[in-house]
Amino acid sequence: MIRVDFNVPLMNGSVGDDTRIRASLPTLRYAIDRGATVVLVSHLGRPKGQPRTDLSLKPIAIHLSKLLDLPVEFAADCLGEAAQNAVDRANPGEVILLENLRFHPEEEQNDPTFATALAAFTDVYINDAFGTAHRAHASTVGIVKHVANAGVGMLMADEVDHLGALLAHPNHPFIAILGGSKVSGKLDVIENLLERVDTLLLGGAMAYTFFKAQSLPIGASLVEPELLDATDRIVRLAQECGVQLRLPSDHVVAERVEVGATCETLTVSDATIGDRIGIDIGPRTRAVYASHIRSAQTVMWNGPMGVFEIDEFAEGTMAVAHAVAESEATTVVGGGDSIAAVTKAGVTDHITHISTGGGASLEFLAGRILPGVDALPDL
After folding, report:
1. What is the SS3 assignment for 190?
2. Please, what is the end-to-end C-alpha distance for the chain in angstroms?
3. What is the DSSP letter of 369?
4. Helix H or strand E encompassing 127
5. Considering the entire predicted model, what is its pTM?
6. CA 153 to chain CA centroid, nearest Å
7. Which residues are registered as beta bridge partners of 183?
């Protein structure tokens, strides 16, 4: 049994982005080529313990079959007769994908009976789902107690190696780029990284909480007022650690976050922002950030610089994506939006490591223990 992370977007009943599925292929092919009967388990979305046709893994079984160029049998449940029959029928070298684990509330409850029932299908359990490693669920933690042999897959090992190297022994200069909508989701990451990085480049909506704390005009931009003191603490900590903490010096603003909205570039101190919204870093900031990235030996990027999903607001994020890709440094990109950004920029092949785990990578970089990794034996 291989616990995979097939929590991917579906569009009109088909897989919209198969990055996570493709990332699992080396482990799957390794097992298939050695004659294993491969039973795959995963979750998809948040069905809240109830079966939902729109969150079925059946379209993923069809897509995986094309990627592997092998039949993938789909079982209509992850337990019971449907699952048991599918496993019993399978031969060495064949693949079965069981239905969404989260159709059962016991999965997220880490229920021991549910974990025991899952374990009944397997001789060897492999966790290759780094994206769920920060969750103590039945298929990531509970099951390990009920199998004779357990270990990590190639994807999980690769994630832990690359992210662990960022914290343990990065080559310097080490530059971290953090963006996205909120400071709150990355406070612990920032504080943990400040002890390791040489430069921290901030962008995206999270920068506006820093601007607000510095009494700069932010218009109608997103801000977390309860974190103003926290941002001040981060600025002080950066100074104490000798870290360059860079915020945007100019930004692109618009009245509305929608296609076709009129944009203007302003310095971040320009009060003519009025009631407009900051939606991207400006050209001066892009050039400064690219210069820092070019000087680095290690680069970590998590979070876009603006609303890159809209082409008019994407230039800052695209500039960072290209700068990271063109860097001679070891580059690690994590988070769903950052992955989407490097994909949109067409530079995925030029990134050293793309992490498939958004929340898990942030927990790891914050220095927290991941239950799904901690549960496995030391190998």
Report:
1. helix
2. 18
3. P
4. strand 124-127
5. 0.89
6. 18
7. none
Q: Which residues are catalytic?
A: 20, 182, 336, 359
- Would you give the DSSP letter of residue 131? G
Gap between the Cα atoms of 309 and 87, Å rounded: 42
Q: Are 336 and 358 in contact (CB under 8 A)?
A: yes
Residue 316: CB atoms within 10 A of its CB come to: 27
Q: Give the separation between CA 32 and CA 69, rounded to whole angstroms.
A: 12
* 14-15/10-11 β-pairing: antiparallel
* Amino acid at the residue 64: L
Give the DSSP letter string of 29-49.
Answer: HHHHHTT--EEEE---S--TT
Beta carbons of 284 and 311 less than 8 angstroms apart: no
Q: If residue 5 lies in a helix (H) or strand (E), which one and from where to where?
A: none
- Give the whole-angstrom CA distance, residue 74 versus residue 76: 6
Stated as kind and residue range, the H or E segment containing 73 is strand 72-75
Among 146, 136, 140, 157, residue whose Cα is nearest residue 116: 146
80 pLDDT more than 90: yes
Phi, psi torsion values for 269, nearest 5 degrees? -95, 0
Average pLDDT for 209-215 = 96
Looking at the chain, list the stretches that DSSP marks H as alpha helix, in order from N- to C-terminal side: 19-33, 58-68, 80-89, 105-108, 112-119, 154-168, 187-193, 207-213, 228-241, 283-294, 315-326, 336-345, 358-365, 371-374
Task: Tell me the percentage of the chain whose pLDDT exceeds 90.
Answer: 88
Q: How far apart are CA 162 and CA 267, in angstroms?
A: 37
Provide the CA 187 distance to its chain's centre, in angstroms: 16
Distances from the Cα of 103 to the Cα of 49, 78, 98, 312, angstroms: 4, 9, 11, 40
3-state secondary structure of 265: strand
Return the biggest CA–CA distance within the chain. Answer: 69
Q: Which amino acid is at 50?
A: Q
Q: DSSP states of 323-364 as a string? A: HHHH-SSEEEEESHHHHHHHHHHT-GGG-SEE-S-HHHHHHH
pLDDT score of 339: 86
The amino acid at 72: V
CA dihedral sign, ordered 27, 33, 34, 37:
positive
Span 240-297, pLDDT tens digits: 999 999 999 999 999 999 999 999 999 999 999 999 999 999 999 999 999 999 999 9
